[in-house]
Amino acid sequence: MPDKKITVLDVLARIESLEQKNASLQGEINELKSQQDSENWQELIIYKENGSETPVEISWADIETKEKRDHYSNSGFHTRTVIGKVRKVK
User: Fold this and answer.
1) Structural domain harbouring 44
2) Confidence tier at 2 by pLDDT (50, 70, 90)
3) What is d(CA 79, CA 67) in angstroms, rounded to the nearest whole number?
4) How many domains does the chain have?
């Protein structure tokens, strides 16, 4: 029966493997944390005609202009609904 001894080289190889895996997982953790950062979340706005469920336009709050808001509010035929904060993929 062969002898199943663990050598110092085996231990060092295992340590190196675990360190590489740890670095990889740390990178994934940092990516997930950055997705939760508040600057990646924006309000999503839907403009609909009154009485209709079909959106006329969908817009992000950070690119919504005063002109666009005035256009839809002054027409009297549209409603502006803020859906909530949605993660904006870059």
Assistant:
1) 39-87
2) low
3) 15
4) 1
